[in-house]
């Protein structure tokens, strides 16, 4: 038997499968009753008779500041201009001269 065949067969037996895909537990790789969910917090609880009670303390509260006199716009224009290093350094130099 040539040496090349021995080395290639030995290499095939020593090669391992990638285990990175096996680390991800999904509903396809888990038992039948496994439900992964979407990583959201419950807002209540299930009752014994199949109902669902929403708990007010578990609902998310969003604190939004008053932005009536705010100068900036809530979006960025699609045709925004790119600044180069020379223009930013010149504007900072001008602003330091104006302060002096």
TrEMBL record:
It comes from the Eukaryota. Keywords: Mitochondrion, Ribonucleoprotein, Ribosomal protein, Transit peptide. The keyword Cell membrane does not apply. Its main location: mitochondrion. GO terms for cellular component: mitochondrial large ribosomal subunit. It is found in: Mitochondrion. GO terms for biological process: translation. Pfam families: MRP-L27 (PF09809). One of its GO terms (molecular function) is structural constituent of ribosome. Belongs to the mitochondrion-specific ribosomal protein mL41 family. This is Mitochondrial ribosomal protein L41. It comes from Digitaria exilis.
């Amino acid at each position: 038997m040539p040496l090349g065949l021995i080395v290639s067969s030995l290499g095939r037996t020593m090669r391992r499968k990638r285990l990175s895909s096996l680390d991800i537990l999904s509903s396809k790789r888990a038992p039948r009753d496994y439900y992964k969910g979407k990583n959201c917090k419950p807002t209540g609880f299930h009752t014994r008779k199949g109902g669902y009670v929403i708990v007010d303390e578990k609902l998310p509260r969003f604190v939004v500041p008053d932005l009536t006199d705010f100068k900036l716009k809530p979006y960025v224009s699609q045709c925004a201009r790119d600044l180069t290093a020379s223009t930013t350094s010149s504007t900072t130099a001008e602003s330091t001269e104006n302060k002096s």
